[in-house]
Amino acid sequence: RMHAVQPSRCDPFVGGWETYLKTGKFELKRVENPTSIAQTLCVAIPANADQGFDVLKKSSGSAVAVSEDEITEGMSLVSHYTKKYGTGPVGGVVIAGTRKLIQNGVIKPDELTVLVLTDGYKIGRGEIKGGKGGKILILEREDAVVKQTLEKILAGEI
Asked: Do 66 and 93 contact (CB within 8 A), yes or no?
Protein backbone atom coordinates (compact mmCIF):
# COMPACT_ATOMS: atom_id res chain seq x y z
CA ARG A 1 0.00 0.00 0.00
CA MET A 2 1.10 3.55 -0.59
CA HIS A 3 0.44 6.33 1.89
CA ALA A 4 0.63 10.10 1.54
CA VAL A 5 1.69 12.52 4.28
CA GLN A 6 1.58 16.31 4.30
CA PRO A 7 2.23 19.00 6.88
CA SER A 8 -1.08 19.98 8.52
CA ARG A 9 -0.50 23.65 7.63
CA CYS A 10 -0.50 22.69 3.96
CA ASP A 11 -2.51 19.56 3.32
CA PRO A 12 -4.73 19.98 0.25
CA PHE A 13 -4.11 16.40 -0.87
CA VAL A 14 -4.96 14.95 2.55
CA GLY A 15 -8.10 17.09 2.60
CA GLY A 16 -9.03 15.86 -0.86
CA TRP A 17 -8.50 12.25 0.23
CA GLU A 18 -10.68 12.76 3.32
CA THR A 19 -13.40 14.30 1.12
CA TYR A 20 -13.19 11.26 -1.17
CA LEU A 21 -13.64 8.89 1.79
CA LYS A 22 -16.77 10.80 2.89
CA THR A 23 -18.38 11.64 -0.46
CA GLY A 24 -16.72 9.48 -3.11
CA LYS A 25 -15.36 12.57 -4.88
CA PHE A 26 -11.70 13.62 -4.79
CA GLU A 27 -11.69 17.42 -4.56
CA LEU A 28 -8.80 19.66 -3.66
CA LYS A 29 -9.23 22.95 -1.83
CA ARG A 30 -6.47 25.46 -2.42
CA VAL A 31 -4.39 26.30 0.66
CA GLU A 32 -3.77 30.03 0.84
CA ASN A 33 -0.32 31.03 2.10
CA PRO A 34 0.88 27.51 2.90
CA THR A 35 3.68 27.39 5.45
CA SER A 36 5.66 24.69 7.25
CA ILE A 37 9.18 23.88 8.34
CA ALA A 38 8.93 21.34 5.50
CA GLN A 39 8.90 24.22 2.99
CA THR A 40 9.39 22.12 -0.13
CA LEU A 41 6.07 20.39 0.58
CA CYS A 42 4.17 23.67 0.76
CA VAL A 43 2.23 23.60 -2.48
CA ALA A 44 -1.22 25.18 -2.55
CA ILE A 45 -2.46 22.65 -5.14
CA PRO A 46 -0.19 19.69 -6.00
CA ALA A 47 0.25 19.33 -9.77
CA ASN A 48 0.23 15.52 -9.62
CA ALA A 49 -2.69 15.14 -7.19
CA ASP A 50 -4.78 13.04 -9.59
CA GLN A 51 -1.91 10.58 -10.06
CA GLY A 52 -1.36 10.41 -6.31
CA PHE A 53 -5.06 9.81 -5.75
CA ASP A 54 -5.05 6.95 -8.26
CA VAL A 55 -2.05 5.35 -6.55
CA LEU A 56 -3.65 5.54 -3.09
CA LYS A 57 -6.98 4.24 -4.36
CA LYS A 58 -5.46 1.32 -6.32
CA SER A 59 -3.14 0.34 -3.47
CA SER A 60 -5.76 0.67 -0.69
CA GLY A 61 -3.56 3.36 0.82
CA SER A 62 -4.30 6.37 2.96
CA ALA A 63 -3.35 9.99 3.59
CA VAL A 64 -2.56 11.76 6.84
CA ALA A 65 -1.44 15.23 7.98
CA VAL A 66 1.17 15.88 10.68
CA SER A 67 1.83 18.91 12.87
CA GLU A 68 5.01 20.95 13.04
CA ASP A 69 5.83 19.39 16.43
CA GLU A 70 5.37 15.89 14.98
CA ILE A 71 7.68 16.80 12.07
CA THR A 72 10.38 18.02 14.47
CA GLU A 73 10.02 14.87 16.57
CA GLY A 74 10.29 12.72 13.42
CA MET A 75 13.57 14.40 12.52
CA SER A 76 14.86 13.76 16.05
CA LEU A 77 13.89 10.08 15.89
CA VAL A 78 16.02 9.56 12.77
CA SER A 79 19.04 11.15 14.46
CA HIS A 80 18.47 9.15 17.65
CA TYR A 81 18.31 5.74 15.97
CA THR A 82 21.01 6.23 13.35
CA LYS A 83 23.50 8.50 15.16
CA LYS A 84 25.42 9.58 12.02
CA TYR A 85 22.41 10.07 9.78
CA GLY A 86 20.01 12.97 9.89
CA THR A 87 17.11 14.02 7.78
CA GLY A 88 15.54 17.36 7.10
CA PRO A 89 11.94 18.42 7.65
CA VAL A 90 10.62 16.40 4.69
CA GLY A 91 12.08 13.24 6.24
CA GLY A 92 10.50 14.32 9.51
CA VAL A 93 7.15 14.40 7.71
CA VAL A 94 7.72 10.84 6.47
CA ILE A 95 8.64 9.54 9.94
CA ALA A 96 5.82 11.42 11.70
CA GLY A 97 3.26 10.25 9.17
CA THR A 98 4.39 6.64 9.43
CA ARG A 99 4.29 6.82 13.20
CA LYS A 100 0.74 8.20 13.08
CA LEU A 101 -0.37 5.51 10.62
CA ILE A 102 1.04 2.81 12.93
CA GLN A 103 -0.61 4.35 15.99
CA ASN A 104 -3.94 4.52 14.13
CA GLY A 105 -3.67 0.86 13.11
CA VAL A 106 -3.42 1.66 9.39
CA ILE A 107 0.06 0.13 9.17
CA LYS A 108 0.19 -3.15 11.09
CA PRO A 109 3.23 -4.02 13.27
CA ASP A 110 4.04 -7.10 11.17
CA GLU A 111 3.58 -5.34 7.82
CA LEU A 112 6.62 -4.66 5.63
CA THR A 113 7.01 -0.89 5.52
CA VAL A 114 9.64 0.90 3.44
CA LEU A 115 10.49 4.56 4.08
CA VAL A 116 12.81 6.45 1.77
CA LEU A 117 14.56 9.37 3.48
CA THR A 118 17.21 11.64 2.07
CA ASP A 119 19.66 14.13 3.46
CA GLY A 120 22.37 16.36 2.06
CA TYR A 121 25.29 14.08 2.86
CA LYS A 122 27.12 11.56 0.71
CA ILE A 123 26.66 8.26 2.55
CA GLY A 124 28.42 4.93 2.03
CA ARG A 125 26.61 2.21 0.08
CA GLY A 126 24.83 -0.73 1.67
CA GLU A 127 25.37 -0.07 5.36
CA ILE A 128 22.79 -2.10 7.29
CA LYS A 129 22.01 -1.43 10.93
CA GLY A 130 19.45 -2.89 13.29
CA GLY A 131 16.76 -0.46 14.26
CA LYS A 132 13.85 -0.78 16.65
CA GLY A 133 11.58 -3.28 14.96
CA GLY A 134 13.47 -3.36 11.68
CA LYS A 135 16.54 -2.63 9.60
CA ILE A 136 18.02 0.66 8.53
CA LEU A 137 19.80 0.63 5.20
CA ILE A 138 21.92 3.63 4.30
CA LEU A 139 22.55 3.89 0.57
CA GLU A 140 24.23 6.12 -1.96
CA ARG A 141 21.98 8.82 -3.32
CA GLU A 142 21.62 7.24 -6.73
CA ASP A 143 18.28 6.25 -8.22
CA ALA A 144 19.68 2.95 -9.49
CA VAL A 145 20.95 1.97 -6.02
CA VAL A 146 17.63 2.85 -4.36
CA LYS A 147 15.64 1.00 -7.04
CA GLN A 148 17.82 -2.10 -6.79
CA THR A 149 17.56 -2.10 -2.99
CA LEU A 150 13.77 -1.73 -3.05
CA GLU A 151 13.56 -4.64 -5.50
CA LYS A 152 15.69 -6.77 -3.15
CA ILE A 153 13.46 -5.86 -0.19
CA LEU A 154 10.31 -6.81 -2.10
CA ALA A 155 11.95 -10.08 -3.21
CA GLY A 156 12.75 -10.92 0.42
CA GLU A 157 16.51 -10.81 -0.12
CA ILE A 158 17.07 -8.13 2.53
From this structure: yes
Count how many residues are written for the chain. 158
Residue 30's closest CA among 40, 43, 20? 43
What's the pTM? 0.79
Cα separation values, 66 from 9, 21, 44, 137, 154, Å: 9, 19, 16, 25, 28
Q: Report, in this order, helix, strand and coil percent for the chain, each rounded to 5.
A: 40, 15, 45
For residues 36 and 45, is the Cβ–Cβ distance under 8 A? Answer: no
- Mean pLDDT value across the chain: 83
| pLDDT surpasses 50 at 120 | no
Q: What angle do CA 53, 59, 61 make, to 5 degrees?
A: 70
Q: Cβ neighbours of residue 75 under 8 Å, at least 6 residues apart?
A: 86, 87, 88, 89, 91, 92, 95
What pLDDT is attached to residue 130? 52
